[in-house]
């Protein structure tokens, strides 16, 4: 992909955003129509279990759910439920059996936690023999996959609905300190085990760091933390993030004024666009690829273009505006700290006027960190700076392939040989 095309798409998006922000007030009717189009209130998606039920029709967009994605390859899967202390209903998935592993011996638990805008589906979109979740199950691990409040599986609360702004009043701090411990405790209780292996990608690593720093007792429940593209300390940002860093306050003001609290929701409309405009036969596919490169890093050789329609049927899958803004605050301050509500609100939340700092010295569980040299979301200098603050790293490793990007951790054409074989090798050596 020509880098000029990447920057052209970036500038075009920025120009449209500028126009939308400055000219919005002049076209009230268009504003409402565009808002409803870009930020639909209802997903309009039907989840099914059988591949022949998947359709892309007007007002009838269907996708396989997690169990359908797994069972079509001959694996067995389960769905479990847990409610957090503040009332969010979460869905946890499990790959409970592999056709390639028949032993009845007690299996070690591995817990996979997705990154921002993902769900558990993101770990199983490429297929058996290729995705990390399937490969772990093939090796005899008991594979559990978490989902967090606000994503496509977790839009339920004991009192609130996603149409209520209070539903979206959370950042990654609440996810880390409430969702993650609730899921870990459930999995350990259900499997009757004392520890588990944690594998997180992107924001899945941020949640891990925040949980263990705020609730250090959870270190004892982590046998090993395997962190892919870890995100905590921001010393540098990509050109894309630097551009939008200056725009973020205006963007947030615009979204708040229009009562938009969720970003990147998975909807029938977004799936239809992904399946039609990003397929191999579509002349618009280069634009889809360019957007991926802007966000993740440019790596044409590992870009799985044939899988794009499938990936975009599940990603992006929704998060709160407050979560994105929390990252923005960390980028501005270059500190890894809790959400900054402002002087008076901070006192209500933290009993002090400033945010709390996540103390990485309290993350004492043994850790393995993998990073990519071409990852624009988890830049190498940021990963290395984060690593200097962690007391128990047993392995810090750059992926040998120099063009490995942020999305390659999930969907690279050769992810198995470039990364997953090494991940499993490290896990098995650690176990023995």
TrEMBL record:
Q: Check the UniProt entry and state the signal peptide residues, or none.
A: 1-19
Q: Which GO terms describe its biological process?
A: lipid catabolic process
Active-site annotation: 202 (nucleophile), 375 (charge relay system), 406 (charge relay system)
Read off the lineage from the record: Eukaryota, Metazoa, Ecdysozoa, Arthropoda, Hexapoda
Which family, according to UniProt? Answer: Belongs to the AB hydrolase superfamily. Lipase family.
Q: From the Swiss-Prot or TrEMBL record, give the protein name.
A: Lipase
Extract the Pfam families matched here. Answer: Abhydro_lipase (PF04083)
Q: Which UniProt keywords apply?
A: Glycoprotein, Hydrolase, Lipid degradation, Lipid metabolism, Signal
Organism domain of life: Eukaryota
- InterPro entries noted in UniProt: AB_hydrolase_fold, AB_hydrolase_lipase, Lipase_euk
**All copies of domain Partial AB-hydrolase lipase, residue ranges:** 69-125
> Could you confirm whether the keyword Lipid metabolism appears in this record?
yes
The Gene Ontology terms for molecular function here are: hydrolase activity, acting on ester bonds
